[in-house]
Amino acid sequence: MNFRPSQRIRPIFRLIKRNEILEAIRLIQIDMVELEKELKGDYPSIVMDAIEDTLNRYKFDLGYLECRLSRLEKKQG
């Protein structure tokens, strides 16, 4: 299934404020570090695929949130 980038954004990300964006970025970065550690583990391939998919999703979300944060800061500044 192919989605346009705007359809892949979690709807809640469009509604949150600046301080919530900063908190979401911080939590996603923590999760990404933990998932990268899990990639070194000895798990079945299906689990490794799920971890990689989650990491890719987090990278996409992180990019969107950082872009949104910079847009908000330009608006305010």
Short overview:
The chain is mainly α.
Throw out a few tags for this protein:
77 residues; mainly alpha; 0% strand; elongated
Describe what this molecule looks like in 3D.
By secondary structure, the protein is mostly helical. The radius of gyration is 15 Å and the shape is elongated.
Number of helices: 3
Largest sheet: none
**Residue share in helix:** over 70%
How would you describe the shape? elongated
| Strand and helix order | HHH
Low-confidence stretches: none
**Strand composition percent:** under 5%
Tally of strands = 0
Task: State mean pLDDT (0 to 100 scale).
Answer: 86
Helix/strand/pairing category: mainly alpha
List the helices and strands and how they pair.
Layout: H1 5-8, H2 18-38, H3 45-76
Helix pairs in contact: 2-3
